[in-house]
Every structure is written in C-alpha cells, then in structure tokens.
Design a protein that fits this description.
The protein has a single domain, classed as Jelly Rolls. It contains three helices and 13 strands. The chain has helices at about 30-45, 55-65, 70-75; strands at about 5, 15, 85-90, 100-105, 110-115, 120-125, 125-135, 145-155, 160, 165-170, 175-185, 190-195, 200-204. The strands form three sheets. A seven-stranded mixed β-sheet has the order 2-1-9-6-11-4-3. Strand 1 (about 5) and strand 2 (about 15) form a beta hairpin. The radius of gyration is 17 Å and the shape is globular. The two termini are about 30 Å apart.
C-alpha cells in the first residue's frame, strides 16, 4: 500500500515514484532532523517555486514515518462530540510551516477547500476518501466547480497537493482516520472554502 500521489490544480490525482521503505531506513532519525532537513530544502527555493520540491518533501515525510515510531504513535484527543482533533507537533512564533497530527472520527468529513499552500499528508491509521474538484467558471458563476475524481487512501500512502488543488476528505471504515500533515506557509488570499451546489466560494 506504500504509494505516493500528487493532486494537481485540475483535480487529477497522479501516482508518483515511491522509494522502498528499506531504502529510507536510518536509525536514529529524530523529528528535529526532519524539521531541519525540510527547512534547509525550502531555503534553497523561492516561495513561488516550492512546489518543485514536492517530490523531495514527500520522500522526507515518508522517511520520517518509516523511521519514527514516536510519530506513528502520536494521537490527538477528541473533545466531546467533536468529529475532528488536532495535535500540533511544532509551533514557534514566526515558524512558517504547519506540522500536525489530525484525526477524524469514522464518517466525519471536511468542507470542500483549498489549502492556499502546498501540502503533504501521510496516512497513519484508517482510510481516507478524497473527492477532487476543478474550477469551471461561467460568466454568471465565477466560482463554479465540478467534481473530477475520487481516491481512497490507506495506511502507508502519502498524498501531496499543489496550492490550488480543491478537495474534500472523509474518514471511512470503522476506526478513526489519523494522518500526519505538513503544510507550507499559507497564502490566505488563495485559501478558499467552496459550496458546490450554490457555486460560491469564501475565504477559508
């Protein structure tokens, strides 16, 4: 099940070359090493071209998951009646990246949205159903979107997104969905939530 994917602006989910787990083994490989390697990689790239680094970023995320038992076992705590839970793994003033563990109860789903930045998600537990859309503007419906495809991911799979990718996530199966999420610096003017019926969009 160890596969890598990328979702493009037009909503297509494409397979990517994936290294074998045993080619990524490195012990010890601590979380701070991962953060440093990600930061060093992004410093080599202008912000507008960070998506060019997605193949290497996916590899670093997979390397972390393969080598870090600590990451694989982190779980956020659900509040009563809350369908989702988040655990921030690193949060420092001025730090531009989002690094977190997210959990969704079975059946819970997100809104239809973009992230306004690149993103990488690794499945740690459960199954995650993605539905993808693309923009299809019309003169009187500038924010119209159309559904393009669906993809269900399981443990060990890693999916990445360009900033303009539009998707919705749903936890399916009988156990909570748990993911490791890495996002770049959010460009708020590019992050939207969509209503696919009313064909409207708002800042997310």
């Amino acid at each position: 099940m160890n596969k890598d994917w990328i979702v493009t602006e037009d909503g297509h989910c494409q397979p990517c070359p994936t290294l074998r787990d045993w080619d990524l083994l490195e012990s010890p490989y601590y979380f701070h090493r991962f953060l440093t390697e990600v930061e060093n990689l992004l410093r080599q790239t202008k912000t507008t071209h960070q998506c060019d680094r997605l193949p290497v970023l996916r590899q670093l995320v997979r390397k972390l998951i393969v080598n870090s038992y600590w990451i694989r076992t982190q779980r956020p705590t659900f509040l009563p009646a809350a369908p989702t839970a988040l655990l921030n793994l690193y949060d420092e003033t001025g730090y531009p990246l989002t690094v977190q563990i997210e959990a969704l109860k079975p059946g819970a789903s997100s809104s239809i949205h973009t992230h306004g930045t690149w993103g990488i998600v690794a499945i740690l537990q459960g199954q995650e159903k993605h539905t993808f859309w693309q923009r299809s503007p019309e003169p009187d419906l500038p924010n119209k979107i159309v559904c393009v495809a669906e993809k269900t991911l399981s443990y060990g799979e890693v999916i990445s997104f360009v900033p303009e990718a539009i998707h919705r996530v749903q936890a399916i199966g009988k156990e909570p969905l748990v993911t490791f999420n890495l996002y770049g610096e959010t460009m708020s003017e590019q992050r939207f939530e969509f209503d696919a019926i009313a064909h409207q969009a708002k800042r997310y």
